[in-house]
Design goal:
homodimer, about 150 residues, alpha+beta, Arc Repressor Mutant, subunit A, Dna Ligase, domain 1, 2 domains, 3-stranded mixed beta sheet, two-stranded antiparallel ribbon, 6 helices, DNA-binding
Chain lengths: ~150, ~150
Amino acid sequence: MKPEQELSIVEAHLRKSGFRWTNQRALIVRTALSTHDHFTAEELLLLCRKVDPRVSRATVYRTLLVLEEAGFVEGLDTGDGGRKFEHVIGHKHHDHMVCGGCGSIFEFHDDELERRQEAAAKRIGFRIERHSLRIYGSCRDCQRRRGTAP
Amino acid sequence: MKPEQELSIVEAHLRKSGFRWTNQRALIVRTALSTHDHFTAEELLLLCRKVDPRVSRATVYRTLLVLEEAGFVEGLDTGDGGRKFEHVIGHKHHDHMVCGGCGSIFEFHDDELERRQEAAAKRIGFRIERHSLRIYGSCRDCQRRRGTAP
DNA sequence: GTAGGTGCAAACCTTTTGCAGCATG
DNA sequence: CATGCTGCAAAAGGTTTGCACCTAC
């Protein structure tokens, strides 16, 4: 899907939900969509400010909240009190492996993994809204790096 | 395993690692071991202060850090910027379902789930150190509560 | 005796909020 | 032109840190 097409989807959805489509929101959403990495709120703010330095931090946070509730963006805890976001338009659901050495994030997916979680939830009558699976460790490169340069 | 036995294990490990075994650490570790729930740093502090009101917040945080690095305690993000801890001595590894309605945490385990994760990691040469799987949603009681009292 | 640990308070970092003014529908 | 949104700055909430004093080894 093309970025402008994705942008239109978000715009249409937000308008339909009674939100206003302001210049700031357009800028923030466009910037978030153009970032294929995982980003922090602060990083998104800085990217937006390259285009318009007057964007405020509060607006970025408020917009991320709206986007998250609308399901266009997902946040994941970084474990140090902060969060990273990623947009999930046209993305299949996936889980994450986080390399402790270089901070890289690897995405993966396994249907059976999802089914098992659903089965476990069903056993205790738990209704799943979302889940977060993160695997921490070292990526191939970081293992090699430590192996050859101890 | 008996609590005092667990305490000795922690003491022995920390001493062997070059840490000192102070009254505060003993109190904090004993308190953490006696709590079978998930607790926040603040809750642990309050429990410790029932025994000795002079324990400082900083010492609780510093001790939790040591315990976490030693692998006796695991922290998990609560999703609202904070963390909850649990001691993992004599516990089998398990994952968590977090109820958004009442905050309850349900533990579950599935061997196949673990194997699938290992397989996914192996495919990209990732070495797993630990992982965190949290399922968010509503527990049986909260679903019923909403259903009967809309 | 000397690292290492402790308590206190202040600093930090990310996120949220109150409020006056602005812009969208 | 009314309501929702924005920017600012301050507050909030959880965690970390600097420093002088203390204590386990």
